[in-house]
């Protein structure tokens, strides 16, 4: 399920990047000793006078490549930066990408261009491009907000290892990012690292009560999303408790999980096991029946345990077990 906060992150990232970009040309104009030739100064004046955007950037890139040591460097960069900021204010992101690629071919270490390219790729929905330049922008100017956006980008790209890397960086800045804690819970569950999954599940439960519904998300969609977050978190906490033989805690948390999402067959299966371990055969059988009825991955094992428990209390007979299954079907409706 896509997080309802994804689009919000992209929008706030956009504002942050161009705020930084707009400030950089001014900051770049540091006082320096005049260390340039007359020819270099004429070229600089020509760049300033050029009104065609592409031509101005081409001239600036050529100047910087051919004159890496001149004290005019920051002034030429300022001319280029102003062009890119103006294009951003005009929402001309396609041209930023075109000009940025050309500029980096001549000046490959320009942090400003990394940020501008990340912003432009984000605004044009090019997730792969955003991730590539977002990482470079982060290396130059680390921020939790950018780490959050990069985590979301890699999640969209299906690169779960990178999602985990950037998600953990984002959480180091803000532990309340429930979309990230949920994603990491799922990631570590799939990797069968229950201890880490449990850690992030507990962070999700702690973060959600303080979360605010994004303005662009309907109340119905927000409830659906938070129900999913809670269901996953409590399921994970319950599984961890079961593995640690804390059966009472397992039952409490797994029941909370199915309260948010009642079609999780493995939750019912583990509820059955936990009740069985606690000596409660009736709720154990009912939960095994629910796991069986849902026909998921736990269905076959759940039916076997249901029959075993039923036979143990009915002199080896299965007569009447269908009544438990019917009750399970009714409760799952």
Task: Please explain how this structure is put together.
The chain is mainly α and 333 residues long. The chain folds into 3 domains: 1-158, Alpha Horseshoe (Serine Threonine Protein Phosphatase 5, Tetratricopeptide repeat); 175-248; 262-333, no CATH class. Helices cover 76% and strands 0% of the residues. The longest helix is centred in the last third of the chain and has 25 residues, at 219-243. The protein is rod-shaped. It starts with 5 loop residues before the first helix and ends with a helix.
Give the arrangement of secondary structure elements.
Elements: H1 6-28, H2 38-49, H3 53-66, H4 73-89, H5 93-106, H6 111-123, H7 127-140, H8 144-157, H9 160-173, H10 178-190, H11 194-207, H12 219-243, H13 247-260, H14 265-277, H15 281-293, H16 299-313, H17 321-332
Helix content: over 70%
- Under CATH, the topology of the largest domain can be stated as Serine Threonine Protein Phosphatase 5, Tetratricopeptide repeat
Shape: rod-shaped
**Beta-strand residue percentage:** under 5%
């Amino acid at each position: 399920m896509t997080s309802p906060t994804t689009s919000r992150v992209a929008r706030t990232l956009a504002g942050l990047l161009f705020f930084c970009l707009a400030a950089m040309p001014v900051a770049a104009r540091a006082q320096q000793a005049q260390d340039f030739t007359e020819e270099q100064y004429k070229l600089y004046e020509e760049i300033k006078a050029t009104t065609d955007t592409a031509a101005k950037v081409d001239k600036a890139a050529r100047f910087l490549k051919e004159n890496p040591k001149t004290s005019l460097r920051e002034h030429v960069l300022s001319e280029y930066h102003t062009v890119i900021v103006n294009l951003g204010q005009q929402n001309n992101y396609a041209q930023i990408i075109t000009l940025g690629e050309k500029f980096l071919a001549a000046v490959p270490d320009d942090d400003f261009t990394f940020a501008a390219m990340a912003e432009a790729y984000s605004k044009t929905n090019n997730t792969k491009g955003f991730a590539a330049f977002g990482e470079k922008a982060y290396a130059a100017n680390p921020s939790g907000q950018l780490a959050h956006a990069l985590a979301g980008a890699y999640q969209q790209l299906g690169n779960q290892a990178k999602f985990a890397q950037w998600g953990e960086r984002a959480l180091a800045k803000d532990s309340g990012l429930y979309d990230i804690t949920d994603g990491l819970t799922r990631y570590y569950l799939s990797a069968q690292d229950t201890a880490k999954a449990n850690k992030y599940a507990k962070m999700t439960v702690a973060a959600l009560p303080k979360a605010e519904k994004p303005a662009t998300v309907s109340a119905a969609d927000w409830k659906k999303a938070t129900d999913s977050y809670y269901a996953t978190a409590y399921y994970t906490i319950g599984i961890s408790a079961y593995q640690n033989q804390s059966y009472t805690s397992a039952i409490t948390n797994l029941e909370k999980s199915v309260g948010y999402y009642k079609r999780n067959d493995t939750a019912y299966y583990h509820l059955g096991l936990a009740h069985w371990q606690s000596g409660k055969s009736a709720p154990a059988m009912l939960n095994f029946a629910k796991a069986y009825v849902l026909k998921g991955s736990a269905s076959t094992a759940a039916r076997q345990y249901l029959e075993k428990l039923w036979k143990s209390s009915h002199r080896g007979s299965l007569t009447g077990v269908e009544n438990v299954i019917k009750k399970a079907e009714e409760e799952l409706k």
